[in-house]
Amino acid sequence: MRHGVAGRKLGRTTTHRKATFANMAVALITHVPRVLDIRDAYASDDLVIAFGLLPLANWVVLTPPAAYALWAIGIAGLVLLAIGGRLAKPGLVVWVVAMWLLLAAEATNIKAYDRLLAWQALPLLFAPIGERNLTAKWRSPFAYWVLVVLYVTMYSMTGWAKVLLEPHWLDGSALAYTLVELNFGGKPLGVWLSGHMALCRVLGIATMIFECGFPLFVLIRKTNPWWLLAGVGFHLGILLTLHAGTLSLAVIAAYPALLDAELARRWWARIAAPVTTAPLPA
Questions:
Q1: How many domains does the chain have?
Q2: In this structure, is residue 282 part of a structural domain?
Q3: With 0-12 CB in 10 A as exposed, 13-18 as middle and 19+ as buried, what is 265?
Q4: Across 9-18, 71-80, 115-124, 159-168, least confident range
């Protein structure tokens, strides 16, 4: 029993480290190129798109120099996270604060992958990062369950919205339209696919099954890895057929932390045998 507990600690620690590294890589891919667009995206004088109950742009107003400074602070936090060790958690905190301030300044023009990266970063603050001998310590699974709730909510809401409110996903026409939509469609593979309604019908139904079934099958040990593998294929398909930025990469980045901990421990033991040859602590 003690061996099993230590194994779960090792598995959860390994998956959280991999998820943290993957999120850091996606964040760098997403935020580094934005230095050329900071004035327009975050500090535009005519940014008047805030509305609703919480007009963030009325409360967080950034000048171009302030926006550049926040961007630099956020990137510095990601560098600290990459260095790791005792600098990892402070670097993550710095990045989270800078990123949320920039997103608030952008008002309602916030991309889906920005929102996802921001929410992914919060549970990782409570994950075991940059510590030694983690298999000998007790760690709460709080970060894991927050990520589970985040992903279950994300998939179930989009899936059941299609089932209940968008019946054209059943005949494939909704997917076909999305693939050629002005803002997100237009990729060659997507345009080709939109002309094959039989394929669009199959993929549309498969999308609804995957999204609606995610809350159940990701929590069952036997189906957990297969559902995550299906998710990788699903998001790679989005990456190849739609202009959705780094959304697919951001979603997949946290998948290692959703992998069943005992299964992750066994896989890690095969991949990095020298790391686990020492007897697990009692």
A1: 1
A2: no
A3: buried
A4: 9-18
pLDDT at position 142 over 80 = yes
Which residue range is the domain that position 216 belongs to? 2-276
72-86 core/surface letters (b: 16 or more CB in 10 A; e: else): ebbbebbebbeebee
Sign of CA pseudo-dihedral 22, 246, 36, 108? negative
141 within domain boundaries? yes
Q: Within a domain: residue 233?
A: yes
Dihedral sign computed on CA atoms, order 228, 217, 113, 196: positive
Does the pLDDT value for residue 239 go beyond 60? yes
Residue 116 lies in a domain: yes
**Burial 94-123, CB ≥16 within 10 A → b, else e:** bbbebbbbbbbbbbeeebebbebbbbbbeb
Work out the average pLDDT over 108-125. 81
Whole-angstrom distance, CA of residue 255 vs CA of residue 250: 9
Query: What whole-number distance in Å separates Cα of residue 251 and Cα of residue 212?
Result: 16
pTM for the structure as a whole: 0.79
Taking Cα atoms as reference points, which of 121, 94, 141, 115 lies closest to residue 20?
121
End-to-end CA distance of the chain: 9
Total residue length of the chain? 282
- Contacts for 27 with CB less than 8 Å, ≥ 6 apart: 78, 95, 99, 117
Return the amino acid letter for 105.
Answer: A
